[in-house]
Specification:
Helices cover about 55% and strands about 5% of the residues. It is mostly helical. Helix 2 crosses helix 3 and helix 3 packs across helix 7. The radius of gyration is 15 Å and the shape is globular.
Length: about 140
Amino acid sequence: MVIDKIDSLLNDAEINYLADLFLAHYGFDRGSLGYRYFRNAVVFASHGLMPMSEAYPLLARCADADVETFLAVITDAVRALPSPVHDVFNTVFAPAPDAPKASHITMRNSRDIGYIISFLGTAFLYVILSDYPKYGFISLVKNL
């Protein structure tokens, strides 16, 4: 399998700036390796090309790391946050409790890094597509 333009996606200054704004409430050290890996994973997940289990090796290769190290760095960065990710998301982005049920999207309490990345990637996709239609598309090609 070949992913076209993954480096251009992960190095897109506008997308990274928007991801920085989207992730600003969580308390990451934006200069850390853990944050950079996490942000790249959220940005890549927002494209929804493949399950994250298949995406991690691609992201790790782009980071010049092995998958285990890549995931360990992300896990350590998330666990070091001052508040759980779901608490921050639900406080900052979820509508008021009295909002209609159909518009009430909340993040569940989970320590599963794959769930956290996929959930935030999906939320980031919504932000990008509804508020800032800049995204280019990545093509997924299977080698035969």
